[in-house]
Amino acid sequence: EKGNYDTIGMMTFSGCTSLTSIDIPDNIKSIGSWAFADTGISKIDLKQVEILDEGALSYCKRLTSIKMDNVRKIGQGEFIGCDSLKEIVFPAKLKELGSDILWNLPSLEKVTVTGSETVFSGSMVEGCSNLKIVDIQAGKVQGGFDNLELLTVKTDASEVGSVRGSIKRVVVNAGS
After folding, report:
1. d(Cα 6, Cα 155) in Å, to the nearest integer?
2. What gap in Å lies between CA 119 and CA 22, rounded to an integer?
């Protein structure tokens, strides 16, 4: 229930594999490390959450949908083991991304970056064998990508760093 607290602490529900849903009240601003790791959650709306500490949602094998409009920090290894996650949209307020956040996700097909201060690196999606589209609407993109079908970089993107790898098509500022 809504209360005077603003954090769900470290490992609070970790390993609760029967936990399939949770309603996070608006007063929660921070989710501690591994708080929901290895649970049965398939969808989660983080409402007003601003901080996702290291691995808070890691190994949620049924996770297919995540809404995180106000998240400004995502910790290391956040979505490792989330084998059902097909698409992720990083919010406009996001400023800090940890390493290996999407590492080795076999079902991930699309990543969208909307934050002007977000730096997205190909190393964050290493081993995502079915990743086809990276859509950089704002922020910076850099690093290597394997077997990417489309990299789009919109007009609000601040920088394209050293991008390399196997990319079939690149669209920059609505022109190819």
Report:
1. 36
2. 30
| Higher-confidence position of 94 and 124 | 94
Integer CA distances (angstroms), 70 to 23, 29, 46, 159, 168, in order: 16, 9, 8, 23, 33
CA distance 60 to 14: 10
Q: Strand 133-172 relative to strand 119-121: parallel, antiparallel, unpaired?
A: parallel
Residue 30, exposed/middle/buried by CB under 10 A (0-12, 13-18, 19+)? middle
Contact 116, 138 (CB under 8 A): yes
Handedness of CA 149, 82, 25, 116 (dihedral sign): negative
pLDDT at residue 64 greater than cutoff 80: yes
Question: Tokens representing 111?
Answer: 């990543």
Cα 169 versus chain centre, distance: 23
Sheet with strand 73-74: strands edge to edge: 7-8, 30-31, 51-52, 73-74, 96-97
Model pTM?
0.91
CB under 8 Å to 102, separation ≥6 — which residues? 78, 79, 80, 85, 88, 108, 111, 124, 125, 128
Q: How many Cα atoms are found within 13 Å in the side-chain-facing hemisphere of 29? A: 4
